[in-house]
């Protein structure tokens, strides 16, 4: 297995980190463009495994998504009726594709699709969505365990006008149905049963449906969706930088001091994960906003925090990995649902932090980390510690930031990351970007 030894920074961070387009916005934009009645040009689309699998599925379905010379992608909207009504679709481990695409294709009056995903995806919750598709008229044939990939869908369009959704295990299930409902043959009333995790992602869905010309409202406890999606009025859609990916560079000053700039986010960003910058301010970093750029300065004293991450849990790993450098016990709550994502993230972070000698209390919904610097120094004295990444891009990236800290004070690497390529899911050039930021810091 490939391992990457991380060189600690030899100077404080400075400069601007280059962040790719948002995964969540990119895959919503691609699906909404396919459901639209017009052609949509998407600018700054993320190029990574999670968007590649959706574009490959588009190819299977005959949906045109072509590269323009300017670097943008042009999707020929087909009102949700692709040229091909059958095919095999592989979603790898992309939660957005796994949820959004089956829901969108279930609108077809006569479609037959085989769906499968990676080993990890075969364990992720799908039943909440597939039960809804059955209620709408699709038949679902499970090839393995009921409620999970792989399965075959025989679609018959949507008949009922109301639907109850259980999105307690993933908000993507609700988002998928709201997006697809824009092409239902009649107005839809969709009720969320109970609570959903990751609420800001549902708000992102609602706002993006409107940006694509759809009509959606919320009348507690129902979402009301009118049929029709014209596409963005200008015909062009711009993707924001990815706020979860930005979290690593926002937090870098905790590990190496200095300040990092990440830009440019629109004033009314669609991404709830920007709330992570508030956590960093609570830790003691100061934040400055300038023309959409966010600058975090870590030259001040830091403190440990106790935070509920339920609404922006993709960023909890960033804090967990840096907790060993904070002066006190860090508590991270609201993260039980992340046990069903790329890997069991709570268990993965607990295991790897224990390898570094940190005091860990792992509960179903929380992680408490008590730093132990001398254990970390001692354990990495003879040789660097190897961090396992469980095919989870966020485990790799967050420990990459911790590893940038000059623990031994002599520039000696003390962490190596196993299978760093798993970053290809959302940020293929993450370690190159970290190295570029390091060379700027070292040159100062
Ligand atoms: O809708 C989305 O784009 C996402 C929703 C969240 O998932 P869950 O709702 O499964 O927590 C988040 O973790 C994921 O990275 C992206
Ligand atoms: C949970 C994540 O991904 P997915 O879209 O596969 O759910 C993530 O990117 O952290």
From TrEMBL:
Per UniProt, subcellular location reads as: Cytoplasm
What are its GO cellular component terms?
A: cytoplasm
* UniProt keyword Metal-binding present: no
Annotated residues that bind 3-phosphoshikimate are located at 23-24, 28, 170-172, 198, 314, 341
Q: Which UniProt keywords apply?
A: Amino-acid biosynthesis, Aromatic amino acid biosynthesis, Cytoplasm, Transferase
- EC number(s) on file: 2.5.1.19
Principal cellular location given in the protein's record: cytoplasm
A GO BP term, please?
Answer: chorismate biosynthetic process
The domain of life is: Bacteria
Instruction: Show the active-site residues.
Output: 314
Q: Does the keyword Amino-acid biosynthesis apply?
A: yes
Catalyses: 3-phosphoshikimate + phosphoenolpyruvate = 5-O-(1-carboxyvinyl)-3-phosphoshikimate + phosphate
Residues at which phosphoenolpyruvate binds: 23, 95, 124, 172, 345, 394, 425
Q: Where is the Enolpyruvate transferase domain?
A: 12-434
Involved pathway(s): Metabolic intermediate biosynthesis; chorismate biosynthesis; chorismate from D-erythrose 4-phosphate and phosphoenolpyruvate: step 6/7
* UniProt-recorded Gene Ontology molecular function terms: 3-phosphoshikimate 1-carboxyvinyltransferase activity
Q: Return the similarity comment.
A: Belongs to the EPSP synthase family.
Q: State its role.
A: Catalyzes the transfer of the enolpyruvyl moiety of phosphoenolpyruvate (PEP) to the 5-hydroxyl of shikimate-3-phosphate (S3P) to produce enolpyruvyl shikimate-3-phosphate and inorganic phosphate.
Q: What interactions and quaternary structure are annotated?
A: Monomer.
What is the name of the protein in this document? 3-phosphoshikimate 1-carboxyvinyltransferase
Species whose genome carries this gene: Puniceicoccus vermicola
Gene (UniProt) = aroA
